Amino acid sequence: MRRHRNPALLFLAPFLTVFAAFYLAPVLYAIYLSLFIRRRVGIGPAKEVFGGLTNYLRAVQDTDFLNGLKNMFMFGVIQVPIMLGLAIALALLLDQSRGVFMKVCRTAFFMPYGIPTAIGALIWGYLYSPNLSPFNQVMGALHAGVINFLSPEVILFSIANIVTWTWTGYNMVTLFAALQNIPRELYEAARVDGATRWDIVRTIKIPLLMPTLKLLFIFSVIGTSQLFTEAFVLRPLGYVADNITPNLYLYLTAARDANYSYAGAMAILLALLIFVISGPLLRQIGSR
What is the gyration radius of the CA atoms in the chain, in angstroms? Predict the structure, then answer.
C-alpha cells in the first residue's frame, strides 16, 4: 500500500501546493485579519488592534451589509428559477431538433457565455444608457415613455437580465448533454405504450434531468452570492448603490475605505451562509 501512496502524493503535490497557496492561505489570512479592528489612540493615526469577534458582531448589525444580503436573496429567488426554466425549455426544444438547425441554435444560445462578463456588462450598459439606449429610442418614437434601467428601482432587474442572458446558454448546453445521455429505448417503449411527446417530457426527460438540474441550481446559488462584476461595471454609468450586492459592498469597504479587517469578516460570514445553503444539497446529490 505504501508503494502506491508515495507516487500518488508526488502527482498531487503540484495541485496541493497551488491549492494551499492560492486558496487556503488567503482564507486563513482573511480569518486572521477579521479578528482585528481599527482603534485610534490619542491624536495619532488609527492602529489595528485585536478585537475578537467585534467585526462579526458589527457585520450582523450593519444595515448596508444586510440590505445586500436581502438583495442577493431576492435576486436568487426570482432570477435563478427564470434562468433555469428558460434553459430547460431551450434544451428540450433542441432535443427535438436535428441537423444544422440544432447546431446553429445551440451555438447561438451558448455564445453569450463566451463573452467575458465585464464586456457583456459594458454592452448592456450601453443598451441601458438613458441617452443612448435603443430601447428608449424606440419607446420614445412610439410615445410610450422611457425607462431608466439604471434607476435604484430597476437596477437589480437590469443586472438579473445580464446574468440571465449570460448563463442561460451554459445551463442549456449542460441540460442538453444530459438529455443526450438518456437511452432512446425509453422513448420507444413509451411510444409503444401510447405516450405522447408531452408524456415523454413529463415522465421521462424531466425526472432524469433532476440530478443535473439540482447541481445547476447549486452552482446558480453560489453564483448569485458572487454577484459583483455587473454591478461594478454599471456603477459609473448610473446610480448603483454601494450595498446593492454584498460583494460590491465589502469590496468598497476594503478598496475605498481601506478597512480590510471588516471586509474580511463580511466575506467569511458570506462564505458560511452559502455553505449552509448549498451544503445539504451537495450532500444529497453526493449520497445518490
Answer: 24
Residue 3 has pLDDT above 60, yes or no: no
User: Side chain identity at 168, as an amino acid letter?
Assistant: T
CATH number at residue 72: 1.10.3720.10
Query: CB within 8 A of 86, min separation 6: which ones?
Result: 164, 168, 172
Residue 226 domain boundaries: 46-283
- Bridge partners for 46 per DSSP: 40
Please, which pLDDT band fits residue 44 given cuts at 50, 70 and 90? low
- Residue 50 CA to residue 54 CA, distance in Å, equals 9
Distance CA 102, CA 125 (A): 31
If we measure between CA atoms, which residue out of 257, 97, 94 comes closest to residue 177? 94
**The residue to which cell 432570477 is assigned:** 79
Domain count, the chain: 1
CA pair distance 13, 21, nearest whole angstrom: 12
